[in-house]
Design a protein that fits this description.
heterodimer, A: 353 residues, alpha+beta, two-stranded antiparallel ribbon, B: mainly alpha, F1FO ATP Synthase, elongated
């Protein structure tokens, strides 16, 4: 049974690469960086393949909250001005995933190709990333509520099913991350650390699925997570923590002129590092995999046969990179949670002289 | 200015990313080698050494990715 599954998986994987190789010649010149940026960026549609896409709702604030409905007009109703193509829906235009207000029914561009119309800065649309985040939130809720109910039902008995898979992971977060970094009062921070860990892990994994959204590779998302860590750390800081930042004890007083600004900057830089680390790792992983698959299309430009020819090799290479990305998905969730726990531990540490 | 004329924004960004990779490779290689050595000397401590190695490697990778992000910005702007 397992061997059959393995054979089917490898067969499907390789044939999909071959199909990609066959399509390489169809759509004019292939611009790899454009295709890659399209795949890792957020969009108002959830595009799967060719013409199959889910057009997500557009919601903006333009003198009041406006629900504009489906975004399909933005992608099908294309107009052109100055050689630049943009989608039009009602009074608004979509250019490079930004919504602008139309002036006299057109979107005007300056010499560098940037639109000069007023842009809508408050875009609350359900974009691909938002939809993916809602999906992962629902998944997490389902998984954990099932496990919680299971614990109630099996009170006192050994865990069964999904519980027995999740329990070691939760205990890992509790013992190796929370207890080790925070010490005595770790229980207060367990909900936060568990949420951060599983939320990042499941979003990393969903991003790896073909057709998934690159949510954790979006710097706004990681900014929010890092800001949450910063808020939790700052709120739970005790006297020991603040004296160490503003008046480090045990150093000559004149060095504090340099040390205090450095410590204050450090207070902000640590969450910023968390943000950039997660964003860059996940985005870089997706860019690598997309670049490798693009090799088929680039080879296909030289001739359909070349496209077919490189596909098995590219298929194997992509498989290896995807396996490494699975490791990175877990590792980045672990590192983010561990460093958050470390910062919280530093903030709540009692003096121990 | 000379660099910009020779290889342009994209070339400078690509060069920066390459240099960053060298730094990260050297740093993580050193950590890996000392971790291996430590684990060979004292196999009982292998698990905690491994955890420390992963943490240090992730921190170095974070710094390397700052450089990569700046290189990416240089290519595009």
């Amino acid at each position: 049974m397992r061997k059959l599954l393995l054979v089917i998986t490898v067969f499907l994987g390789l044939t999909s690469q071959l199909i990609a190789g066959g399509q390489a010649q169809e759509e004019g010149a292939f611009n790899p960086s454009e295709v890659i940026m399209h795949h890792i960026s957020d969009a108002h549609e959830w595009h799967f393949a060719g013409d199959f896409a889910i057009y997500l709702p557009v919601i903006i604030v333009d003198g009041g909250l406006k629900f504009l409905g489906s975004s399909s007009d933005f992608y099908h109703n294309i107009e052109e001005n100055d050689g630049h193509h943009y989608g039009v829906k009602g009074d608004y235009a979509l250019f490079h995933e930004h919504i602008y207000k139309l002036e006299n029914g057109t979107l005007n561009f300056d010499e560098e190709g940037h639109p000069t119309n007023a842009s809508i800065s408050l875009d609350f649309s359900i974009t691909k990333n938002v939809a993916s985040m809602m999906l992962s939130a629902v998944l997490l809720f389902l998984i954990f509520s099932t496990v919680a109910k299971g614990y109630k039902k099996n009170e006192g008995k050994a865990p069964k099913g999904l519980q027995s898979w999740l329990e070691p992971v939760i205990i890992f977060v509790r013992d190796d991350i929370a207890k080790q970094m925070i010490g005595h009062h770790y229980a207060r921070f367990m909900p936060f650390l568990l949420t951060v860990f599983f939320f990042i892990w499941i979003n990393n994994l969903l991003g790896l699925v073909p057709g998934g959204a690159n949510l954790t590779g979006n710097i706004a998302f990681t900014l929010t997570l890092a800001a949450l860590t910063f808020i939790v750390t700052t709120i739970s800081g005790n006297k020991h923590y603040w004296t160490h930042i503003f008046a480090l004890p045990g150093v000559p007083k004149w060095t504090l002129v340099i040390l205090t600004p450095i410590e204050i900057i450090g207070m902000f830089v640590k969450p910023i590092a968390l943000m950039i680390r997660l964003f860059a790792n996940i985005s870089a992983g997706h860019i690598i995999i997309l670049s490798i698959v693009s090799l088929i299309f680039i080879a296909g430009q030289a001739g359909t046969g070349t496209g077919f020819g490189v596909s098995p090799l590219v298929g194997i290479f992509t498989l290896v990179m995807n396996l490494m990305e699975l490791l990175v998905a877990f590792l980045q969730a672990f590192i983010f949670t561990m460093l958050s726990a470390l910062f919280i531990g530093q903030a709540t540490e009692e003096a121990h002289h | 200015m000379l660099l910009e004329a020779l290889i342009g924004n994209a070339g400078a960004g690509a060069l920066a990313a390459g240099v960053v990779a060298i730094g990260a490779g050297m740093g993580i290689g050193k950590i890996g080698s000392s971790a291996m050595e430590g684990m060979a000397r004292q196999p009982e401590a292998a698990s905690s050494i491994q955890t420390g190695m992963i943490i240090a490697a992730a921190l170095i990778e974070g710094v390397a990715l700052f450089g990569a992000v700046i290189a990416f910005l240089a290519v595009n702007a």
